[in-house]
Design a protein that fits this description.
Elements lengths: L8 H8 L7 H15 L16 H21 L10 E5 L4 E4 L16 H11 L16 E6 L1 E5 L2 E4 L3 E9 L3 E4 L5 E4 L1 E5 L10 E3 L5 E10 L9 E6 L1
Antiparallel strand pairs: 1-2, 3-6, 3-10, 4-5, 6-9, 7-8, 9-12, 10-11, 11-12
Helix pairs in contact: 1-3, 2-3, 3-4
Length: about 240
């Protein structure tokens, strides 16, 4: 299913205090596209259809979308950007008077200079860990298999059931890492995965190329309240 619009005509009417224009749905859809462009590198939780899941992010995007349409209505724009290019146009001889535009620091997207930008800034800096909570799935392009280490027994090492097709980002580079016992050891592969990955030191991993290796160091990267993604980093033999 396609992503839902960030705001409805009813929400727009409440925001502006006036009846929504006849083409409100089209304007809201275009405003949502502008927000998507402005937030191209932003990370926040979404469902399978791309709809944000955090209620505060939902509210911020709704407010920003309504503010964007309100701005277009006030400047006589129709959502294409043409309404804000020229202050006046005359023919014979041709005379064009340029209207000043507000740079939004979002590439070619011009957001409403006050209210839309403020709503998005709040979404990025509001209370809690809202914009980014974990490394996004679309960055985890590889798949690995993990057999969690359970400990030693009289018959050797014990492993839990293999978990196949774990999304991960794998870099097979050689570098030195510090093992839990303090030794400096050599890692030949590093795996970035979801922060909930169950992979204690000693676990077996099968990398995308089919090589089986062992986890020699595991780091859980978190930054509560900051807009950086949490993840698990596994250094392998």
């Amino acid at each position: 299913m396609p992503r839902r619009p960030y705001a409805t005509p009813e929400q727009l009417a409440v925001w502006t205090g006036q009846a929504a224009p006849a083409d409100a749905e089209r304007l809201l859809a275009r405003a949502g596209e502008d927000l998507d462009s402005a937030l191209l590198t932003a990370l926040y939780g979404v469902d399978d259809d791309g709809n944000p899941t955090d209620p505060q992010i939902v509210a911020a995007l709704s407010s920003a979308t309504c503010a964007q349409v309100e701005y277009w209505i006030a400047t006589g724009d129709d959502g294409t950007g043409a309404g804000g290019v020229w202050g006046s146009v005359s023919i014979g001889p041709v005379s064009l008077s340029a209207r000043s535009r507000t740079s939004s620091a979002t590439g070619d997207v011009e957001l409403a200079p006050r209210r839309a930008g403020a709503a998005l800034c709040w979404a990025h800096s509001g209370p809690g860990d809202r914009v980014v909570s974990r490394v996004p799935l679309f960055l985890l392009r590889h798949r690995v298999s993990v057999e969690p280490y359970l400990g030693d027994s009289a018959y050797g090492k014990r492993y839990g059931p293999a978990v196949a097709q774990v999304p991960a980002l794998v870099a097979e580079t050689v570098r030195q890492v510090r093992a839990p016992d303090g030794r400096v050891v050599t890692s030949t592969a590093q795996v970035i995965a979801d922060p909930g990955l169950a992979c204690p030191v000693g676990s077996r991993l099968t990398l995308p190329g089919g090589r089986t290796t062992t986890a020699i160091a595991v780091a859980h990267h978190t930054a509560p309240g900051l807009a950086v993604p949490a993840c698990t980093e596994v250094s392998c033999e």
